[in-house]
């Protein structure tokens, strides 16, 4: 799937991802399934489907929080801030960044912290 993504064969990847997510979930590998959802969100973002990507990353945020995976939660927040900024929704970008910054600080994710600041600047 990574190779197909690099080749920008996004339709192929989106078609195959649900099976991969299902397989990981069936094996009790919830974090790996969630990482596949990141691929889905990023493909939607790359394909210019930012509104759909927002929905995916909102779901990822909820799932990462329920799994108590602060690292994945923080990265999902970073993507949400950037997407809201790209869509011109500064209020939503600021609201999400207010939630994101403490999570990123607690996990020591300085790069994510900088990306949120960049999103706010956008």
Please provide a written account of the structure.
- The chain has 122 residues and is an all-alpha fold.
- The protein contains seven helices and no strands.
- The protein has helices at residues 2-6, 10-26, 30-46, 50-66, 70-86, 90-107, 110-121.
- Helix 4 runs antiparallel to helix 5 (70-86) and helix 5 packs antiparallel against helix 6.
- The protein is globular, with a radius of gyration of 14 Å.
- The mean pLDDT is 92.
User: For the terminal residues, how far apart are their CA atoms?
Assistant: 31 Å
Whole-number mean pLDDT: 92
**How big is the Rg?**
14 Å
Q: Which series of helices and strands comes N to C?
A: HHHHHHH
Multimerization status? single chain
- Contiguous runs where pLDDT drops below 50 for at least 5 residues: none
- Profile the largest sheet: none
State which percent range the strand residues make up: under 5%
Count of strand segments:
0
Global structural class: mainly alpha
């Amino acid at each position: 799937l990574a190779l197909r993504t690099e080749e920008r064969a996004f339709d192929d990847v989106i078609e195959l991802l649900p099976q991969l997510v299902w397989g990981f979930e069936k094996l009790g590998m919830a974090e790996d399934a969630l990482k596949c959802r990141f691929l889905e969100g990023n493909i939607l973002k790359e394909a210019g489907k930012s509104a759909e990507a927002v929905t995916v990353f909102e779901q990822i945020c909820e799932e990462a929080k329920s799994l108590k995976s602060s690292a994945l939660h923080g990265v999902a927040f970073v993507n949400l801030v950037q997407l809201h900024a790209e869509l011109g929704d500064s209020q939503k970008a600021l609201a999400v960044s207010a939630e994101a910054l403490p999570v990123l600080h607690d996990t020591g994710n300085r790069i994510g912290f900088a990306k949120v600041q960049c999103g706010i600047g956008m």
